[in-house]
Design a protein that fits this description.
The complex is a heterodimer of chains A (about 425) and B (about 300). Chain A has about 425 residues and is mainly α. Helix content of chain A is about 75%, strand content about 0%. In chain A, helix 4 crosses helix 16 and helix 5 crosses helix 11. Chain B is elongated and about 90 Å long. With about 300 residues, chain B is of the alpha+beta class. A three-stranded mixed β-sheet of chain B has the order 9-2-10. Classes of the chains: A mainly alpha (about 425), B alpha+beta (about 300). Chains A and B meet through helix 2, helix 3, helix 5, helix 7 and helix 8 of A and helix 1, helix 3, helix 4, strand 7 and helix 8 of B.
């Protein structure tokens, strides 16, 4: 009964409200162009709202169908490919994109690079939202999510999955506490603020340790699949590579997130800070590319790099377009000074990082399973719905909480 | 004042991590190779592919014993209702061979090391059993299994289960043989301890070396399995994975997992030290907001 009501509501939104909003949005855009009509909201806002509502209705339908028909009813997963887009993108790439938080927190609190503080809180918020949504995705993807508490009781210290579950749980709490001062400032809870302030440093160190553990463990997950995962990606160094790329891509994501915030919410942009991060990131990316290629060569798999097949293509897209090109771009002072240039370079890093996670969890397994798995529309739309939910909460948090330092209002508006 | 409490907190954290290390180290000894079964004494099965006629008696016996009711489309490959199945292979020389597939019951099972809550676990006797009440349905066991054995109920919304052959562990505990082993009319299946079956396999190969391929599949694969195959046809032509490492698969992740406590403690110490140095040089930067003048909220009040 409840299921039917939710389904009806979701379909009503998807079939009636969304098309209406799209029509209104497009119509308003045309009217403003030709008749000069001005309303209080922009046509882009209405259109975006339509798209977001459509995605959320799809997500609601996906959840209902997943409950009713099982995971096989909404995804293209099978016994041959038990992990899919929700693990590869939402969990593995999602955690990686939140990697900027532990790096920046370390720079500011442990190494005393106070000048990065203005972009610290927004980065922590991004990571916290990312991890929260990762957990949501995981709960949908688990077959028996109500048994998740078993990980707290029945420890299997040999299981990478166990370590991941523990670290992600703890780190999400750490991120929440790291962000909580913003809430306490808003509520003027002086005492709570002081308590959190007093434990911030150990908390940050704990966060870095937990991040190192679970970011690398996302790579260790695949160490147990020798012969299944393609040799371009299967290496004993997977956990180390995952950790390095969590840093590089996490920093790239800081650039992307700052730019999106500046554009979307009409805020100032700390171009100088992002430029400094990019300069360091260029070195890291170059190092990452060199060790990745050196690893393939050292394992004697160099011929695979030049075999004209899908795997080599995905590998070069990931390393070439996603690591080497942005490394070169970020090494140029001209690019670092340009808002769009740096945004583009950051976006490439993020693209390369996501592709790497998908390569390891999906494309790299095709040689073993055959290309039997591609994510279904429901899987992709659910992931996009989670992304838009994160963006919405982020925008609301920026509006109501002191996420950005006050002086930012006077900084050049974007 | 806060400085002291901060330092104390650091020490506390370090102590806690140290304790975790100790705990991890003590656990390491007992569990790094499953429960540590005796590779010669575990219950095993010798499957002679040259004798199998593909009658399907083993599959029917399995269904009967485990209460399975496979539908027409589920037949032919492993699934929730099919825990063992003879898979047909038509060879180039017009011959047909049948390969009975089921869980291999590795001596060092990848699935049991992968399971976060030990739902899949190695029993004292050796076979890998399943505790449904613990299972999260994360399906990492399926990813880790080198033989693609565990299957999942993809169409079940809220109570999906992992399915695989449990080697009739309940029957074994009552002193009976697994259902499939006693059902075979062609003598292709033989149940016994792994040591005696390995000897039997090698003696069969030695007595008719022109018939058998000189390889006992499962003797070394994945660190050794309880299911042992001998065949008159090269295993690669029968769909067997020949690239399964002989090193136990759990070792590949344990290489990394076993180092985590050291990395974690080392990192905490280094970062703690670095922050002390920073503190000494820069002093503690206090970012306490101006509580009286509202710095935080913008829109309201």
């Amino acid at each position: 009964m409840l299921q039917d009501i939710i389904m009806l509501a979701a379909l009503f939104i998807l079939r009636v409200i969304v098309p209406l909003m799209l029509v209104v949005g497009i119509g308003y855009a045309l009217m403003r162009r030709f008749n000069g009509v001005q309303l209080k909201f922009s046509p882009g806002f209405v259109l975006a709202l339509g798209v977001v509502l459509a995605l959320w209705s799809m997500a609601a339908i996906t959840i209902i169908l997943r409950m009713a028909r099982g995971i096989g009813g909404v995804t293209n997963l099978s016994d041959a490919t038990p992990f899919g887009f929700w693990i590869g993108f939402d969990v593995m790439a999602g955690a990686m994109l939140g990697g900027g938080a532990f790096v920046l927190a370390g720079l500011v609190y442990v190494f005393g690079l106070e000048h990065y503080r203005p972009i610290l809180r927004s980065t922590i918020l991004t990571a916290f939202l990312g991890y929260s949504l990762l957990i949501v995705a995981l709960l949908i993807d688990l077959g028996r999510p109500y048994n998740i508490w078993n990980t707290l009781v029945h420890w299997n210290v040999h299981s990478v999955m166990f370590e991941l579950a523990m670290c992600v749980m703890c780190y999400t709490i750490v991120l929440a506490v790291e962000f909580s001062p913003a809430l306490f400032e808003r509520l003027r809870w002086r005492k709570a603020w002081k308590i959190v302030h007093a434990i911030t440093l150990p908390l940050v160190i704990l966060g870095i340790v937990l991040s190192t553990m679970h970011q690398s463990s996302l790579g260790s997950l695949w160490l147990i699949t020798p012969g299944k995962l393609h040799d371009l990606w299967y290496t004993p160094w997977l956990p180390v590579f995952f950790w390095i790329s969590a840093i590089t891509v996490g920093l790239g994501m800081v650039t992307v997130e700052s730019n999106l915030t500046a554009r979307g919410l009409k805020r100032g942009l700390h171009q100088d800070l992002l430029g400094r991060l990019a300069k360091a990131n260029a070195v890291l990316l170059a190092f990452y590319a060199v060790v990745k290629l050196a690893d393939v060569v050292a394992r004697g798999k160099a011929p695979l790099l030049f075999t004209p097949d899908l795997n080599a293509m995905f590998f070069w897209l990931e390393i070439g377009l996603g690591v080497i090109v942005p490394a070169i771009l970020m090494a140029q002072p001209k690019v670092r000074a340009s808002k769009n240039g740096l945004f583009a370079a950051g976006a490439l890093v993020v693209f390369g990082g996501i592709l790497n996670r998908l390569n390891v969890s999906m494309f790299g397994l095709w040689q073993f399973t055959g290309p039997v798995y591609m994510p279904s529309i429901m899987e992709i739309s659910f992931s996009l719905a989670l992304l838009t939910m994160g963006a919405t909460v982020f925008a609301l948090a920026v509006k109501y909480l002191p996420v950005f330092p006050k002086e930012e209002h006077s900084v050049t508006a974007a | 004042m806060t400085g002291i409490s901060r330092r104390q907190f650091l020490k506390l954290g370090a102590a806690a991590t140290g304790a975790a290390t100790l705990a991890a180290q003590t656990q390491k000894a007992q569990a790094s190779t499953g429960v540590g079964v005796d590779p010669m004494n575990v219950p095993s099965m010798l499957i002679d592919i040259s004798r199998c006629v593909g009658c399907g008696a083993c599959e029917r016996a399995c269904c009967e014993s485990n209460g399975l009711e496979p539908t027409e489309d589920e037949l032919g490959k492993l699934g929730p209702q099919v825990l063992t199945v003879p898979v047909r292979h038509d060879l180039a020389n017009d011959k047909t061979r049948w390969v009975k597939t089921q869980c291999m019951h590795c001596l060092n099972p990848a699935c049991a090391s992968a399971c976060p809550v030990s739902a899949l676990h190695q029993t004292e006797e050796g076979p890998i059993d399943y505790r449904l009440e613990r299972c999260l349905g994360c399906r990492y066991c399926m990813v880790s299994c080198p033989f693609g054995v565990p299957t999942f109920e993809w169409q079940d919304g809220l109570t999906p289960e992992i399915h695989k052959c449990m080697f009739c562990i309940e029957r074994q505990r009552e002193g009976e043989s697994p259902a499939c082993a006693i059902s075979c009319p062609a003598g292709a299946l033989k149940f016994g301890t792994r040591g005696e079956l390995l000897a039997e396999a090698h003696s069969r190969i030695a007595t008719s070396p022109d018939v058998y391929v000189d390889h006992v599949y499962g003797e070394h694969e994945a660190g050794g399995t309880a299911m042992l195959y001998i065949s008159d046809t090269p295993f690669e032509e029968l769909g067997f994975r020949m690239d399964v490492p002989t090193r136990p698969l759990p070792a590949y992740t344990w290489d990394v997992m076993s180092k985590i406590p050291y990395v974690a403690v080392g990192m905490a110490v280094v970062l703690g030290g670095a922050s002390m140095i920073t503190r000494k040089r820069n002093g503690w930067q206090d970012h306490e907001p101006d509580w009286d003048n509202d710095t935080s909220s913008e829109g309201e009040s």
